[in-house]
Amino acid sequence: MKFSEMPYTRVDMDEVKNFFEQLIEDSKNAKSGEEQFELHKKYYDYIGDIRTNITIAIFRHSVDTTEEFYTKENDYIDEIWPLISQYTTEYTKVLYNSPYRDYLEEKIGKVAFKNMELSMKSIDEKILPLMQEENALVSKYDKLIASAKIPFDGEEYNISLLRKFLTSGDRDTRKRAWKALSDYFLSVTDEIDDIYDQLVKNRTKQAKELGYENFIELGYNRMTRNSYRRKEVDNFRKQVKESFVPFVMKIQEQRKKQIGVDELKYYDNDVYFAEGNPQPTGTPEDIMNAGLEMYKELSPETAEFFDFMIKNELFDVLGRKTKKQGGYMDFLPKYKAPIIFANFNGTSGDVDVITHECGHAFQGYLTRNEEIIEHNDLTMETAEIHSMSMEYFTYGWMDKFFGDRADDYLKMHLQDSVTFIPYGCMVDEFQHIVYEKPEMTPAERKQVWKELEKTYRPWLDFDGDEFFDNGGFWQKQGHIFWNPFYYIDYVLASVVAMQFKVWMDKDFKDAWNHYLELCKLSVKDFYETELEEVGLKSPFKDGTIDELVKNFEAKMSL
Ligand SMILES: [Zn+2]
């Protein structure tokens, strides 16, 4: 069904209440595992319809935030969502404690039950006020960042609009833009320090009230780390320090030549070529058409997928004034349809929508008939493999998007992907130190960051900048505020996607078939088990990262 023809019905909370009360009672009284599973299937249908309605409303609101009807529906959803979550948690407890647990675990999966356990360990009524305060602090940070008015060359810009100057091919322009950004952060850094200080103390308090020693364990549970914990992540970062950091140093030397400077400064960091970074050559329509051709050629599965997306109007990607910022992929369970939201703005980010977001959507499409919805409750280190690998699988088609700068784009993509790995680990290690010692002062936290920069990004020269050179950089990394310990997921997924890159360069078809296999597995099994099943290596195991770096160095002639 076309998205425009999909009906929307407001979720009736009386009905939701009745449904869950009945479900919980029936489920408790079930006389067998079979009976309880049949009831669980009713839950699938019901929650699937609710999610579909909610996704439709939020999407229609996002594409035109001035439209009245869906603005009201969006507000209504903000109000009811916590209640619906509460009902589902109550119901989950019944399942978790079922006398027919073995049967249910057989049907729904051991991953699902482990996730239920982690989620129950992460929440309790007594920390609700603290959680509300936490949300308010996060919103305060978001508002501060979103409302930035940065004067530059006689105009005012917000951070995202300033970006095109931060990456300008003209060195003087980007140097001045970075100075403008630094001045802005310097003007709000005390306020951000204060927000973060409160967040750290708040989260620590939540952890203590739930009986944890500090926030780290709780943070891992909130991130549904169901099969690897701190020890494994520590070992991963150790490998990155040993293997990736020296590799990235070499890339920086290469980049120095590419942009034609004697010394790399921090304002050169996101620039890859003297003539500036490659941009897509065509209109948004050209990009969509190129995507259609590309997916037709890539495989029968992707051809069917992209065709389905276009026919059912499941893309809304053109940038418009009244549209919400950002981009995402979501899923409409009732119609078994992925949906993609984006704001094309003429940069290579537009192509990421066709590669990265479509990677997520393609996985959703491949598993759309999966009966057990828990099998698709993706954790992020897995979900990002689907999208990041698609970026590599589509390398061969980049001339359709970047014309004669396709090779530049690929070079930039590789260099950028590799350079990201130590940075992502730094963000993660910073948070471990912060939550381990919540009593640190804001000044001490900045000192921690400054020290980590020396380990993870020793090539980066902040040129004595008053904000960035004094350990302030992390304040512009939203994930540190929104969702502690989330960031490492991108890094873990990225090194797995890189393994696919090595594989496809040897045997494209074979790599593709194993990628399909991984997508279809979804999260039926635990992370490392699934990787092994499709012939990939766990990032936590000694040697994986070193081998990957050697392969990549050879690929990039370093
Ligand atoms: Zn993604």
The counted number of beta strands is 5
Query: Rg, please?
Result: 24 Å
Tell me the distance between the termini: 50 Å
What's the helix count?
22
Our estimate of the beta-strand percent is under 5%
Rough outline: globular
Secondary structure class reads mainly alpha
Characterize the main sheet.
3 strands, mixed
Helix content: 55-70%
| Poorly predicted parts | none
The averaged pLDDT comes out at 96
Strand order of the largest sheet: 3-5-4
Order of helices and strands: HHHHHHEEHHHHHHEEEHHHHHHHHHH
* Attached small molecules: zinc ion
Task: Walk me through the structure.
The protein has 558 residues and is mostly helical. Helix content is 66%, strand content 4%. It has helices at 13-28, 33-63, 68-96, 101-108, 110-122, 128-146, 159-166, 171-209, 215-222, 230-259, 284-298, 300-311, 349-366, 380-393, 399-402, 406-436, 442-456, 479-482, 488-506, 508-521, 527-533, 544-555, and strands at residues 150-152, 155-157, 315-318, 328-332, 337-344. It has a 3-stranded mixed beta sheet with strand order 3-5-4, sandwiched between helices. Strands 1-2 form a two-stranded antiparallel sheet. A hairpin with a 4-residue loop joins β4 (328-332) and β5 (337-344). α3 crosses α5 (110-122) and α7 (159-166) crosses α8 (171-209). The longest helix is centred in the middle third of the chain and has 39 residues, at 171-209. The model has no long low-confidence stretch (mean pLDDT 96). Bound molecules: zinc ion. Zinc ion binds at residues 356, 360, 384, 387. Zinc ion (ZN) binds at residues 356, 360, 384, 387.
